[in-house]
């Protein structure tokens, strides 16, 4: 686990290493359904409804579901442990895959809508994993820990093309490709139950007893947490905190712009003659951008600070939005989507670290839930409006609009005072 160790950092306890690895493997497998939704969702809806303008519906439904489930899941994980939220996410993901497989086989549009809603609920619950990763590490290693867990998600990016290749070789005449893809997916998810079970103790218990696992020098962190634990969750207080508000806005813009461009681009690629495997490979490279560099980004975040990494991430994401529609060339599109994923990674790690830095452990899940509610609301709006604008203009127009919107939170982030990484005034 020297992967995310920067210089002059303490040795990482063996138990923390074990839990981090199990979290990472779980994240890799649980990312497959979401990647497949991006690859196939827009084309599934367009095929069944006959309307390209509805291509954003899967993204809208998934984002809307994340909005609904984000805060309740945060409440559950704050009160019953982070692992409970992960089990919930896994069960919902398996149900969603089966529903989407059935809807594809029988060409049932509204059943497909329901499948994407359930998938969004599962994905929303899974985002609490970021909180669990933050819980296990002290402030000076927090972003590095989050980054390491997210880095392993990149392996899931290559499991999706592998699944499609496997499905294409399985000769079941009565089932179409999409029915088989979604139907076989639960086989990749069921082993995750074991990985989650092996994570002991629950990360929220580690956060409450950092000195027990990291040593006496972290006793002050524990005392601070215990003092803060007496505070109650207060929406007004959470939103009035400038660090929280900046994290919410930065992440919400990054998430919504990425979701809108991704769903639109996959449909455009299919219409231009690319097949599902090629689109899946493009999405896989995008996911590489999202997660492969999370570990060094986490180290960088612990070194130069949260706000600067968030700003750099948004700038890279804006460049990706600008590049993506320039040409129909496979490699240019893939480069643009890679940069979008890389920029999102910086914004994600920085915002998660900021939330963990300024909020006590007993409300951290709910504050992250508010963050995900915000990003879900933004994503619903943009994934609904984006395809409509693109349908009457072009993908290029909506991508250039996204470029401008992505740069807008930078002024807010620049106003934050962060004298040391993770310490705000």
Structural write-up:
With 425 residues, this protein is an all-alpha fold. It is 79% helix and 0% strand. The protein has 23 helices and no strands. The chain has helices at 14-30, 32-49, 57-80, 82-106, 109-126, 129-135, 142-151, 154-169, 177-184, 186-189, 192-197, 203-208, 210-214, 219-228, 235-240, 242-271, 276-291, 294-304, 306-323, 330-358, 361-392, 395-407, 410-414. α16 packs antiparallel against α20. The radius of gyration is 20 Å and the shape is globular.
Tell me briefly what this model is:
The protein has 425 residues and is an all-alpha fold.
Highlighted features:
mainly alpha, 23 helices, 425 residues, single chain
Helix content: over 70%
Distance between the termini: 33 Å
Structural class: mainly alpha
| Beta-strand residue fraction | under 5%
Order of helices and strands: HHHHHHHHHHHHHHHHHHHHHHH
Stretches where pLDDT falls below 50 for ≥5 residues?
1-7, 226-230
Q: What is the count of helical runs?
A: 23
Describe the main β-sheet briefly.
none
